[in-house]
Amino acid sequence: MPRIYLSPPDISMQDHASVDAVLASNWVAPVGPHLEEFEKTVASSVGVKHALALSSGTAALHLALQVLGVGQGDEVICPSMTFAASANPVRYLGAEPVFVDSERRTWNMDPALLEKALQERSAIKAVIVVHLYGQCAEMGKIIELCRKYDKPLIEDAAEAVGASYQGWPAGSMGDIAFFSFNGNKIITTSGGGMLLSNHQEWLSRARYLSAQAREPVLHYEHREVGYNYRMSNVLAGLGLSQFSDLKRRISAKRAHFEAYKAAFDKYQNVAMMPIQEPDEANYWLSCLTLSGGVSQRDALIAALETEDIEARPVWKPLHLQPVFDGCVCYGGQVAESLFAQGICLPSGSGMSGAERQRVIDAIISFLNEGFRS
Ligand SMILES: Cc1ncc(COP(=O)(O)O)c(C=O)c1O
Question: How are beta strands 75-79 and 124-130 bridged, if at all?
Fold first, then answer.
């Protein structure tokens, strides 16, 4: 039986046709009509005025921080429970991340601890909020706090394309926001990202920096250090095709989550990640927590591996990562306990019902055999 992956790319014949059409057009560099169309399509679907397609979500965050003026000596708030790419660009600019723990309701940044950090620290230059595994953070409170303390809010919606919060699409709520189209995301351009904002001057500056900071003159003139961060027009063609399939992907992923939830409901030692508003998450990854700590978590992952099924622990909190040793963290125990107990399950939008049943059967047989050490 073929291996079941966590979240593999889901590439259709329509994607092949779309990429072939771009190649035939000969617009293969990071410039061309598909790029413009991809930016316009995503911006209008999210409801923001400006979008910039880039080579990765990490590049998008780097540019977002830069246009907000983050630099040496500044601090930037970031949730602890996230991928390292949510904080690495803070360090590219010589600033320091300040981590904030999760709340149990959504696994996202705890607004009460965010307020404590904002109250206590004068060096905070910006706040990064992350929508973990495709469920939005408590944005009402977080936006209110950022306004109260007059700090710009960067929305890391890397995992949340197609999700929303009280009707507001992910990517439309921060002062500046970004998506990732990495190979494991709900839609992919192999690698890629998009920066979104209603602030035209920020996105113009990001556009300029993303293309080697070239001055608008005939010859090559540069007054600042720039980056080679633009997305290729070929990949924008793939992105357009993938984006048109987003609704089906969300439904497929939601069906996986609901099937897992129904199957594990009667097991007291297992709980699915709490989803607050089922119609608003994009269900990028279905996650569960298993009581019993790290040894049980790892035993279940190993048991799935013997059936050729890929599963992984949830993100290791950034305040525990050696690279961020010494960084301040507000709270931390919730993220630590989620890490000790949390597992991401196969959630591909192309995973069949039969494959999903293989995953469910393997987990149930692990649970029925009781906890192994
Ligand atoms: C929460 C989060 N932020 C940022 C990123 C970075 O995106 P990329 O891989 O496109 O650079 C990712 C994913 O990879 C992510 O999951």
Answer: parallel
334 Cα–ligand 1 center, Å:
22
Q: Is the CB of 156 under 6 A from ligand 1?
A: yes
Do 116 and 260 lie in a common domain? no
Is 188 close to ligand 1, i.e. is its CB under 6 Å away?
Answer: no
State whether residue 13 is helix, strand or coil.
Answer: helix
pLDDT tens string 244-293: 999 999 999 999 999 999 999 999 999 999 999 999 999 999 999 999 99
Domain that holds residue 109: 13-243
Largest CA distance in the chain: 71
- As a whole number of angstroms, the distance between CA 83 and CA 70 comes to 20
Q: Are residues 103 and 204 in the same domain?
A: yes
**Pocket flag, ligand 1, residue 85 (CB < 6 Å):** yes
> What is the 8-class DSSP label of residue 319?
G
Residue 236 carries which side chain, given as an amino acid letter?
A
The residue whose C-alpha atom lies closest to atom 8 belonging to ligand 1 is: 57
